[in-house]
Amino acid sequence: MEMLGWRDGLEGRWREWKQLEDALGRTLAGRTVLRVAGKRPPRGMTTGAGAHSMRLSEGQEAAGAYNAGLACFCLGELDTEGRAAFLENWHKRLQSGATAIVADRRGKGCETAFELHELFAAGGTGIDVQVGRTYWWVRYEVR
After folding, report:
1. Where are the alpha helices (DSSP H) in 1-143?
2. How many Cβ atoms from other residues are within 10 Å of residue 41's Cβ?
3. Contact, 82 vs 59, CB < 8 A?
4. Which site in 20, 72, 74, 80 is 20 to 30 Å from 43, CA atoms measured?
5. Beta strands 124-131 and 135-142, pairing class
6. Cα angle: 37, vertex 120, 27; to 5 degrees
7. Plot region of 142 (φ>0 → left; ψ -120 to 50 → alpha; else → beta)
8. Beta-bridge partners for 65
């Protein structure tokens, strides 16, 4: 009986991720995307032919003009000050008005919708925060 609960939990997380992945794919379709991933990026997340992908550890150097940004599983690897610095540098590489999407697992400092809104308010407008059981994601326009 215990194994069934574990399997249901895993399947629930998978369904939640697939919903997130589908929404991100629709939002980023046809855009030139700067994608940044942490140590454990999600499998299957594609951003199309106009994307440049890099790891969080590779720094913030990316040449080009990007009208969208996607950061997956990055903020959970950073402390509070590191998160603010990452977002500031990332926003500088995105065009003003670019669509930015950040997604991660729920964790310290990024647990509630209020905390997430506060984190992204400095660099974005039209902030849409979604918090699921396992993941959170935020979509906004870069100032």
Report:
1. 2-28, 80-92, 113-121
2. 16
3. no
4. 80
5. antiparallel
6. 60
7. beta
8. none
Q: What gap in Å lies between CA 91 and CA 39, rounded to an integer?
A: 21
Residues 6 or more apart whose Cβ sits within 8 Å of residue 90: 34, 36, 60, 69, 71, 100
Q: Which amino acid is residue 134, in one-letter code?
A: T
**Per residue in 2-21, pLDDT tens?**
555 556 688 888 899 898 88
CA 125 to CA 107: how far, in whole Å?
24
Distance CA 110, CA 47 (A): 24
d(CA 51, CA 40): 19
Residue 7 identity (one-letter amino acid): R
- As to burial, measured by CB atoms within 10 angstroms (0-12 exposed, 13-18 middle, 19+ buried), residue 129 is middle
Instruction: Report whether pLDDT(78) > 80.
Output: yes
| Structural domains present in the chain | 2-142 (3.40.50.150)
